[in-house]
Write a structure and sequence with these properties.
The chain is an alpha/beta fold. Helix content is 31%, strand content 12%. The chain has one domain (43-328): TIM Barrel (Alpha-Beta Barrel). Strand 7 (159-163), helix 5 (172-180) and strand 8 form a beta-alpha-beta unit.
Length: 355
Amino acid sequence: MVDQSRIRGRGTASNDAGRFERFTTLETDDGWPQDDDLPPLRTEVREEVARSIISYNRSPDLPFDRSINPYRGCEHGCVYCFARPSHAYLGLSPGLDFETRLIARPNAADLLRQELSTRKYRVATMALGTNTDPYQPIEKTRLITRGCLEVLRDFNHPLAIVTKGVLIERDLDILAPMAALGLVRVGISLTTLDAKLSRRMEPRAPSPKRRLQMIERLTGAGVPVRVMTSPLIPGLTDNELERLLEAGRDAGADTASWIMLRLPREVSVLWKDWLVQHEPARAEKVMSRLREMHGGREYDPRWGHRMRGEGEYAEVIAQRFKLAVKRLGLRADAHPLRADLFAKPPQAGDQLSLL
């Protein structure tokens, strides 16, 4: 555990090595007097020259088969983030490294243009932000997400975005015209309406009030928005389900979804540490509910089960969501995006048409 004075505004205090590492590093007192405290833990960004940018999946749990992720790691620091274990593949910790040692992929837009231009490419909705947030704070200066948007716009490519980041409002000049053509929709994650809980659980993400403003501004510009009550945390935020949906609807969202808290690999340990520190009175209730939905385990990775669990409690949540969506006039399934407008734009060196 890293000294709390160094990690203000971070989601976790742990920086345990990833599961593939043979050794780990610990902070220890060597006995010598210290005249000065250690400096706060700062965010560092490295660059990765990617060889490809479109990732394909065959998961029946997901409504898309392809995605792009401009960044690895996420400075929002959400302690529950299911993507944290992916940092272990880089030799880094899913803990503090995930939110402080970020990887940017500056050639993402160029790669995307190349991959969309190949003859074998067949268009289908592209997902953006499925692993880490494309509008986390470093996007303000890196502009990698915006570069990818410009490419997708040029190809008239259908796009689904998931984010908590307010920087998406910057790109309304691209998103609004795409939305007018039926090419884009956005999902905004709304986990709680309790600002204090959100600050502890998602320390560098926008506040709940600000996320509702994002929905208002996006829908006001004609961009359709899904309010995502994800993750829903049993014994902690599940009592807010109906209020979250209503707040999203009132802000302009026309579609809704929910996913239960997922604790794959290292996330389970990080989450339990967070509960002990921030919600000790509720810790046992939260974990017992999760085990109840996963056959006694803290997480069940099986397709068809990992997103929502199973059993009586999971069914109650599903029924509450169904009734609330119907009462509020929301949709559970979004209108399909258009794929018939996709076309490769003219590029330097192309042969000109004779007609």
